[in-house]
Amino acid sequence: ASSLGSSISLEQQLKIEIEKAEQKTIEHKAVLSQLEALRQENHHLLENLQKAKSTSFVEFQEGYNKVLNKVELQNKQLQKELAETRTTLEASSWVSQSKYDNIVQQLQHQVTEITNAENKRMQDLQYKHEEEMKALQAKYDRTVEHYE
Hints:
mainly alpha
């Protein structure tokens, strides 16, 4: 009986040990399952992070390139407008200079005409004065001759 009792006791211990082992196995499986879930989540988060980094950089680079292209186009447009404005200004300046030169030439011509007219008038007045002086001198001479 004692060996039977011992054997039952061993069987019970074995059952207890098996149950403990099974419980540990279940706990290990749960821990392994949680560990695998964490690994998958880490992997997923890492992929998202890398995707976000690369996407952010790509988006940043694309945005930068768009802005740079826009600025370059605006720069070209401004250079074109500046060249057109310079051309217009030069043409306007040339036209203004040409008009100024024409006005100066017309004024010089008018001054010359006025000077010539004034000189002719002076000559005419001087001639008339000389004629009047001659007439007066002749009248004076006749008057003197008459009274002599």
